[in-house]
Design a protein that fits this description.
By secondary structure, the protein is of the alpha+beta class. The protein has helices spanning 2-13, 15-39, 48-68, 73-94, 98-111, 151-156, 181-194, 226-243, 251-256, 286-289, 291-319, 325-353; strands at residues 119-122, 125-132, 136-141, 146-150, 160-161, 167-175, 198-207, 212-220. It has 4 domains: 2-94, no CATH class; 102-161, SH3 type barrels (Roll), CATH 2.30.30; 167-282, Alpha-Beta Plaits (2-Layer Sandwich); 290-353. The chain contains 12 helices and 8 strands. Strand 1 and strand 2 (125-132) form a beta hairpin. The radius of gyration is 31 Å and the shape is flat.
Length: 354
């Protein structure tokens, strides 16, 4: 009987601890809900607010539990001192990693230099951002795999962000000195036009000992097709040069392996139905390679559109009292349409969250 009384007494003493844990958990859940309600976005594609709230809630919960534990004041003070030392040591040893990555994450989000869906090149890797987290950023590579970069590396190291509006696609080819550069330029420009590149131009990159290196480049508007268009451009270069009777082989090849003068290195032209053509946007492999990045970009764009609608709605409601007649009716109709559109966006984003 005494054992039961002792256990019940101990449980009663720890009720404040359980209450603190429950209250902190409830507040954290409420904060998550408020962030989702305000932003109307998918936290799986943007985990930054959720991660920050969770980290803050854990720290508050630990401190609160120590303060309400049923122990002597001296023991409580010792626990608080120990907790302070632990936090100091953790911060000291992780200041160049953990804390620095958190600060870098805040900087990336404040400057908005990177967004989900952006193509970036870091070192030898080319991929698209899927999410920017509290400590690291997730990138979906051209092989459909995922790589994780610390946020500090995106600030301190060289990172190339592909312009989402338009970018330059280029390819190089080496040809012999027996082909005039004006002829080469004509057919390389034709190859770029076949791929739908705008404002194509040809540059001579290098005058080598045995060959000339040419670069053809053009403006690509549909940046999501960056990889496919690069491949299509090289195919078109082969087709255009071979159709013109230009061999893609340098004199060094002839010096290494002598062949009869009539021997050429141009494959037979296939039947008209077998010729390669640029891949359409709907059939492009990028749709499979960067599926998560596409979804993250779509959610980000929906969020931006919702924010624009909210700002426009505030402007209309603020100036509604000054309008009369047709202008007031038109403004009321636009307010109604904006509210309907915002509700539709909320429904889409909430479905993604679920």
């Amino acid at each position: 009987m005494k054992i039961i009384e002792n256990w019940s007494g101990t449980l009663i003493e720890f009720i404040p601890v359980l209450l603190v844990i429950a209250v902190v958990t409830a507040i954290a859940r409420l904060a998550h809900w408020l962030v989702r309600y305000k932003q109307g976005k998918n936290h799986e594609s943007d985990p930054f607010p959720r991660q920050f709230i969770t980290l803050f809630a854990v720290i508050i919960a630990i401190i609160s539990v120590v303060l309400v534990m049923p122990v002597d004041v001296s023991v409580r003070n010792q626990l608080l001192t120990l907790l302070g030392l632990v936090l100091t040591v953790v911060i000291a040893f992780s200041s160049t990693t953990f804390a620095a990555n958190i600060l870098a994450g805040f900087t990336l989000r404040a400057t908005r230099r990177l967004r989900p869906g952006n193509f970036i090149s870091h070192g030898d890797d080319l991929g698209r951002i899927t999410e920017i987290g509290l400590i690291q950023t997730e990138i979906q590579t051209r092989h459909r795999n995922f790589t994780y970069l610390p946020n500090t590396s995106l600030l301190s190291e060289k990172v190339m962000v592909i312009n989402p509006e338009a970018t330059i696609v280029s390819a190089e080819v080496s040809l012999g000195y027996d082909v005039h550069h004006g002829v080469v330029e004509k057919y390389l420009l034709g190859a770029a036009e076949r791929c739908g590149l705008e404002d194509p131009h040809v540059r001579v990159r290098e005058l080598g000992d045995f060959s000339i290196t040419y670069r053809i480049a053009g403006l690509l508007r549909e940046v999501k097709l960056l990889i496919t268009t690069g491949s299509d451009l090289r195919k078109a270069m082969l087709d255009c040069l071979h159709e013109a009777g230009i061999e893609i082989v340098s004199p060094a090849f002839m010096n290494q392996r002598p062949l009869p003068p009539e021997q050429v290195f141009i494959p037979q032209t296939p039947a008209s139905g077998d010729k390669s053509s640029p891949v359409s946007a709907t059939d492009a492999p990028e749709n499979v390679i960067f599926d998560k990045a596409d979804e993250a970009e779509r959610i980000e764009n929906l969020k931006d559109h919702r924010e624009q609608l909210l700002n426009r709605l505030k402007e209309l409601e603020a100036g509604l009292g000054k309008l009369e007649g047709y202008q007031k009716t038109s403004a009321e109709q636009e307010i109604e349409a904006s509210n309907a559109r915002i509700k539709g966006l909320d429904a889409i984003l909430n479905n993604k969250e679920e």
